[in-house]
Amino acid sequence: MELPARYLEVMENFLGQEDYENYKRCMKEKGVRGLRLNPLKVLPERRAAVLHAIFGEELEAVPWSQKDGYYYGGQELPAKHPYYYGGLYYLQEPSAMAPGALLPIEPGNKVLDLCAAPGGKSTQIGGRLDGKGFLLSNDISASRAKGLLKNLELFGIGNCLVSSEEPERLADCFPEYFDRVLVDAPCSGEGMFRREPSMAAEWNRRGPEYYAPIQRKLLHLAWQMLKPGGYLLYSTCTFSEMEDEENVSWLLQETSGAEQVVLKADYGFTVGRDEASARLFPWKVKGEGHFAALFRKKGTGDFLSFESGEIKERQRNNQAFLKKYAAFAWFREKIKAPLEERGFYWERQGELYLLPLSPGTLPPLRFLRTGLHLGTVKKERFEPSQALAMYLKKEEFSATVDFSSADVRTVKYLKGETVEAKEEECTGENGWCLVCTDGWPLGFAKRNGGSLKNKYYPGWRWK
């Protein structure tokens, strides 16, 4: 791979001779790959079993994401395993796990991921929220936002909104609203050159000078949406000081009430030139490279609170909804999860949802998804969604069938085929059945005796 001459000159001046030589050496080495387990599905006591089933061995933990991040070798195909289709893990470059780990999130927070596609950091945040509070994941590109939506639904994250909006529109709708904000900004991608050489060729055309103004605009708008007392994490996958420390300095100078929080130099991280941010260099950590800076907005905010009035509104809304949509109310009896305690039922054009916030507060934005998509009402029938199947746990549905991940019927089901099951393999009555692998849901089927008519979402099928 040939790196731009001007870029190498900048890096040599930035790093100094010793680190510059280290950088050139590591760029000739093979990069590392990583995956992050889904804490909503894989409990700690099952981590080792899941990883062994996929790789046949134990994996090294990613230290800054040690609760769920792991390195894996380059020969395996973890995206071709039933557990991937069960949403048990997300394939993510290891250093990209740092921003989602460094942002201080508590279950119950209202979180904005402003530049969220393809969803690595959003799925990480959704896991940390543990079904409480809510996440707004936005990406200005509608095509990229569709991939973001799939990854969130695959992970079983129901307390989220997915939008494809201009940041200015979001700022108008959510002034000083969010407890936490992540701005993983578009950048020149210098930390990805080893993994994606085409980005190095693009650097001459769109380098730091192109991206820095965009990043400052995003930071300015994101800051407007952050609640007093809240935290904002800014990150890039580039080494450029113009896009990193200079933007940090700009935010501190131009924005009222911003204070930078010092990130510790743990796990081999390097302290930035501002003596507070964190840099991940590929010759010092096992990863491609990242930058992160954490800010707090001065003041105090009301976090993690649920007003009694909102709870009563939710109860009234959900009781009326179940009376109006009898077909869903009948299906609801099969679900053992306390959905009414987790959100507001809502209908739009025959599609039913469970919203993480009151429908009356839903702003007029371009949403790809509003909360958990429950399914579709068709005359007197209700058809559950793929997203609902991924959201539920096996024990939360009254009718299930569970195949081993090694069973040929598992892949046949994922390919959209009708499969057969013995009576003793099934629980519950005929009708809607939750198909699982090793205890984890994959999707729905319509069961008639031993025959399972496939209802797996066509756009997700195994190819």
Write up what this structure looks like.
By secondary structure, this protein is α+β, with helices and mostly antiparallel strands. The protein has 3 domains: 5-297, Rossmann fold; 308-390, no CATH class; 393-460, Archaeosine Trna-guanine Transglycosylase, Chain: A, domain 4 (Roll), CATH 2.30.130.60. Helix content is 31%, strand content 24%. The chain contains 15 helices and 22 strands. The chain has helices at residues 5-15, 17-27, 47-55, 82-85, 98-102, 120-129, 142-154, 167-173, 197-203, 208-225, 245-254, 308-324, 326-332, 386-391, 408-414, and strands at 33-37, 69-72, 89-91, 110-113, 134-138, 160-163, 178-184, 226-236, 258-261, 270-271, 278-280, 290-297, 344-348, 351-355, 367-370, 372-378, 381-384, 400-403, 419-420, 431-437, 440-448, 451-454. The strands form 4 sheets. Strands 4, 5, 6, 7, 8, 9, 10, 11, 12 and 15 form a 10-stranded mixed beta sheet that branches. A hairpin with a 2-residue loop joins strand 13 (344-348) and strand 14. Helix 1 (5-15) crosses helix 2 and helix 8 runs parallel beside helix 10 (208-225). The longest helix has 18 residues, at 208-225. The chain is globular. The mean pLDDT is 95.
β content, as a range? 15-25%
CATH architect. name of the largest domain? 3-Layer(aba) Sandwich
Number of helices: 15
Q: What is the number of domains? A: 3
- Count of strand segments: 22
Largest sheet: 10 strands, mixed
Average pLDDT works out at: 95
Protein structure class:
alpha+beta
Rg from alpha-carbon coordinates: 23 Å
